[in-house]
Specification:
By secondary structure, the chain is mainly α. It contains 9 helices and 3 strands. Strand 2 (about 60) and strand 3 form a beta hairpin. The termini are far apart.
């Protein structure tokens, strides 16, 4: 069976998606030879993907034994999301003075791109356009360190290499969240902006699978 050359795919995303979808249970050992066969990948690529997922705590590396699916630590995830929400809400507030009509139209175009990705794009397209909306908004703020810290915290808080939504409904709710943020930005109300950003992050099925019942995603 032909193998995929290194660097030609996002194997860590594929493995993470399988874990998220229930193909592997929390605490289950991941046999590399099985992953090679299941994902038609080389031993090197499987090990590299697992190492990346271990950094995100999606899987756990046990010396001399291998890798297993990490046990969920919901409290830690919620604590990290709370910090992320604070940083991103502040980043949005600080961007507000710089958002003239042209900037708001740009953000609307970014939201439109995410909507199109939901209907026509891949998971990678959806993830990229979603992050582009948020990063474009925060990029209007003057405090570059705050923006960098918010993005770094966002990446650390995610179990998955990309933003992965568990359902089409969650994707639609995420799109609605973008529109709510835009409406708050147009109102020029810092309190409303902060509230909409926090709601968008903390009620996220993409950020925390435990809230799939509420089915919102950021």
């Amino acid at each position: 069976m032909a193998r995929h050359p290194s660097g030609r795919r996002q194997l860590d995303v594929e493995i993470a998606t399988s874990i998220r979808d229930g193909a592997y249970r929390p605490g289950e050992w991941l046999r590399q030879v099985d992953l090679e066969e299941r994902f038609n990948a080389t031993r090197f690529d499987v090990r590299a993907a697992l190492a990346q997922l271990a950094q995100r705590q999606t899987v756990e590396h046990v010396p001399n034994r291998g890798f297993r699916v990490a046990m969920p630590d919901r409290q830690r995830r919620r604590d990290m999301l709370a910090v992320r929400a604070l940083l991103e809400a502040q980043a949005a507030i600080e961007a507000l003075p710089a958002l003239d009509e042209a900037a708001l139209r740009l953000l609307e175009a970014k939201a439109d791109a995410f909507d199109r990705a939901i209907d026509e794009g891949t998971s990678a397209d959806q993830s990229a356009t979603n992050l582009d909306f948020h990063d474009t908004l925060y990029g209007f703020g003057p405090n570059r360190f705050l923006v960098e810290l918010a993005i770094e915290t966002r990446d650390r808080a995610r179990l998955w290499p990309m933003v992965l939504w568990p359902s089409l409904r969650a994707l639609r709710r995420s799109a609605e969240g973008h529109r709510s943020i835009l409406a708050a930005l147009r109102s020029r109300d810092p309190g409303a902006v902060a509230a909409r950003v926090r709601e968008h992050i903390l009620g996220s099925a993409a950020n925390d699978p435990a809230v799939e019942g509420g089915d919102s995603a950021a």
